[in-house]
Design a protein that fits this description.
With 298 residues, the chain is mainly α. It has a domain of 182 residues: Vanadium-containing Chloroperoxidase, domain 1, CATH 1.20.144. The chain has a two-stranded antiparallel sheet with strand order 1-2. Strand 1 and strand 2 form a beta hairpin. The longest helix has 28 residues.
Amino acid sequence: MFLITTLLLGLTTPAPVSATMVPEPTDIMSAVALLPQQTTAQQPPAQPAGTSGTKAPDDQKPKSPEDQKAEAKEPPTPPHTGLRALFANFGEDVQHLPSKQNLYLTMIGGGLAALAHPADQDVNTRLRSHYDAVNTAFAPGKYFGDTPEQVALSLGTYAFGRMFNQPKTSHLGMDLLQAQMLTEMLVEPIKFATRRQRPDASNRQSFPSGHAAITFAGATVLERHVGWRRSLLAYTVASYVAASRLHDNRHYLSDVVFGAAVGSIAGRTVVHHASDYWAFAPVNVPGGVALMVTRTGW
């Protein structure tokens, strides 16, 4: 009965007007043969996702140009983000450390630190305050930039991504941990090699600032993963931590400037993608040489 009703509907419903007309069936068998073709032509056009009807899954919805551009700048997520991959990738990071780009960043950081050196004493004197409100405002800086706290935040990010099967989140946590390990590997030998006395004369481990280095390393990793707009808060926190070290009389201005450069080197070394690199090239100018900085990707 259902077949007969369907057959009658297919025969009685007029075919849509088109350039090629469907021939009229001469018998029941030919009508059955033509029925699928006619019913297919009568189906209404599919409605776009987001309107009435069945909604398309989120992963099948068209993405906006802004989202596509953001994803193009993200570093590729590795197939594995376990502990073995973490330490294996860290070994590769150490191998990538000697590079022309890192050499230029070291030169820039060293040059800025040298320029800041004559103002070291004066800046610390001006930043030290006897107002309780100012002292209270800078008090959390030594904790925000301390290595155990930074590592705990990175471990939390890494564990969250692993527990809830979010590879991008675990990849971010893995890069943060690798950047912090690389930062410590760079900072500590320099401290013991330079043996610069701290402003408060507590020890000879002033240059460079480890707090500035590790916070700028984390901010750089975030910038490489999510873009500079979304990492502005991280860079603000890193700058606040660096200023707090001057206020607390634990470092000089040149210490935190070079520490920020070391952290930036570590953060850029551990994030492997080439869509947002800076190119450095020496250029001859009248009376000397200038360093031209060019962004090679957006």
